[in-house]
Amino acid sequence: xxxxxxxxxxxxxxxxxxxxxxxxxxxxxxxxxxxxxxxxxxxxxxxxxxxxxxxxxxxxxxxxxxxxxxxxxxxxxxxxxxxxxxxxxxxxxxx
Length: 95
Fold this sequence. Notes:
Blueprint: E1 21-32, E2 35-47, E3 62-65, E4 68-77, E5 84-94
């Protein structure tokens, strides 16, 4: 969305609510524009939806829980349980 100064602002729109199982993976600290950030990777498991369905998560989306946001990196079918999708996500937090 244009910000009125020649740039743009990013606006997120809620698409719904999901049940999810969240499991922590690896984490690290990094610097971004001279600011220390903590990057934590998670696996989030949600109910399956067919490819192309508006209810299927995509890598250009994110999950949110309160003030926490999880940027979706990848989405794959669970080969053990066909009824679920495994989403690899990252959470970035200022340190």
